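Following the same procedure, the fold was encoded as C-alpha cells, giving this record:
***
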Amino acid sequence: MTFFDDLSQVRLEGDVLRIAIATDANGTSLDFDGVAQGTHALRALSAGTIAARSVLLVGEGANFCAGGNVRAFANAEDRGAFVGGLAGTLHDFVRELDATEVPVVAAVHGWATGAGMSLVCAADIAIGGPATKLRPAYPSIGYTPDGGMSWSLPRIVGIAKARELLLTDAVISGEEAARLGMLSRLVGDDEVKDEALRVARTLAAGPTSSYVGIKKLLARSGQATLSEQLDAETASIAVAAESPAGREGVNAFVEKRRADFAGL
C-alpha cells in the first residue's frame, strides 16, 4: 500500500505533486476533501515522507474553483461555527503551501472566485487563459475574505488596488489579472492545464535547492531592510555555490553542456 492509495484527489505525476482543489461533483466549489488531502500530502512532502519537486494546483471541471459552497453555508445549523471550521481547514492548506519549499504552480481555467482566487494568489506561478476570470466574491454574500486573500492580494497589486478589488467585488478578466500580476501569463484557454503541467514539470527538473533559496529570500524581503537583504543574499549565494546544484550548473556552463539537475 502506498501513501497515495487513500487519496483520491492527490497524486504524483512524475516529480509533480498534483492536487485537485475543486471537482465537478460539487459544482467546482472548493472541495474540502481535496484541500485536506492536499494538506496531508504537503506535510508529508515537507517531512520527507514523499518526494516531489513541484506542486500543481488544478480544478477538475469547468472552473479552477468557484469558491465556497454557499448552499452548504445556508443549510448549516450554526453558520458561524460551520464556516469558521471550513476556513480553518483551508488555512491549514494555505499555511502548508506557504511553507512548501518547492515551486507551486496553479492551472487557472474558467472562474477562480472566493477561496479559488485566494489560492491563485498563494501560488508561485499561475497560468490562465483569455476566458479566465477572477472575483473576490465575498461581499456578494456579505462575507469577508479567507484563504489569505487580505494578506496576499495587497502584496501582488498594492494596497489601494486591493481595496478597490475587494470592496467593489470586481470581476477581473484574465488579461487584467495578468497585467496586475495575479496571473503570471496567459495561454490559449484549451492550453491552460497542459501549459501549467509543462511549467511544473520543467521546474521539477530544475535546481530544487536554488528554488528553495529563491523562495526564502523572497519570503523575507518584505520585512527586511536593503542592507539585511543584501546580507541574506550573500549568505544564500555562498551556500548555493557550494551546493551540488550550484556546482553542476557552473560546471555545465563552462563545459558548454546542458546542466543535469536530476536529484539535486
